[in-house]
Amino acid sequence: MNYFRYKLIAPSGEVFSGTTKLPYEDLMSAISHLERDGSLTLYVKKLGILRTSLTKLGSFQFRKRMKRSAQAELLSNLSLMLRSGITLTAAIEEIADSIQSPEIKNDLKNIILSVQAGTPFSETAEKYSHIFPTAVIHLIRIGEETGKLDEMLDSGAQHLKRIQAIVSDTKHALMYPAVVFVVLGAGFIFWVYYVAPKIIDLFRDMEVELPLITVFVMKISYFFRDYLFYILVILVLIIFSLLAIYKQMKWAKKGIDGLILKLPVAGTIVSASTLAFISEYFSLLMNAGVDLLHSMIILKESISNEIYREKLEGIRKNLKKGESIADSFKGGIIFPSYVIRMINIGEMSGTLSEQLASVASEYRNKLANLVAVIGKMLEPIILVVAGVLFGVIIVGLLLPIYDLVSQVSR
Fold this sequence. Notes:
Blueprint: E1 2-9, E2 15-22, H1 27-34, E3 40-46, H2 49-58, H3 68-83, H4 88-98, H5 102-116, H6 121-126, H7 134-146, H8 149-205, H9 212-248, H10 250-262, H11 266-287, H12 292-302, H13 306-320, H14 325-329, H15 337-349, H16 352-409
Antiparallel strand pairs: 1-2, 1-3
Helix pairs in contact: 3-4, 3-8, 4-5, 7-8, 8-9, 8-11, 8-16, 9-10, 9-16, 10-11, 11-12, 11-16, 12-13, 15-16
């Protein structure tokens, strides 16, 4: 097998270019293969040893990743067309023609060429992980072995839709508190930067003796008015520095992830989301026939929370020692007793995949309920924060007015 870089005009008139792997040594055979569907080859070149090595190592590292919803739609459409009797390559070509992204369209054309050259679909799909996630590739492999590729592709599509629902619910749940506190912060800055200084300057012009709380508000207002630009710059630098530390340093990431899990509302949301994701993914991997140790590696690489990643690595080591699945999941408070109990039932009855699917469904419902009631959960916190912030400002501004009215009435 050799790598060839090519550029061709398809029968539709569209121009495609890319790199594909073909079982040929000479250019003429490669050109004949590329032109068998009526395409016209503009350029083709066999890559040398160095370029081939670089292609193997990095050709797919920087490709545009498909959105999960688009991946699910692609798999669903592919399953439907296969069920209708359309061949795999024809189905992929039909989907490629409807794709807007030139990069993805080109990748699908390359997949067609690879499959037509005799490479198994599962092996080809592995090279395009930005289109076919790891779990889906395992399903494709099973589909090829059992002759039920359409069913496995549909299972993959449903899995991605459920994962997308988990991610979407998590974002919605976390978005509400973020927006609320941003609005509160913006309102506070507006008052102390614009409104309060004008009123305080008026008091000073009238030579009114200012109460201690008003002096406090005045100093805060003048501080924001004089240094707001520098405050914002420093704040941005701190945020970017923290993000860099979070991404680069494992100890910092672990500390922040652990802190998030302990927060009253955010911790509940992140925990429910992660447990739903792990249960859903684990269930699919069991259905796909992936062994337990490999499943733990895939699960670990699929989540970002360092606390759960460490726990999954510990589970993998326990499984390697010969412990049962349920016993491996025990220890700490990461996995609730309900999850461990369901895993134990599944392990004992041989229905682990079904029990994990039930756990995933339970946590998806919990996440959906959290999204629905997040406003009511945050109301007390919002009232306290807003009361303290604006209460101090209002009291600080009203006290001098009250003193003025008292002096006039005398």
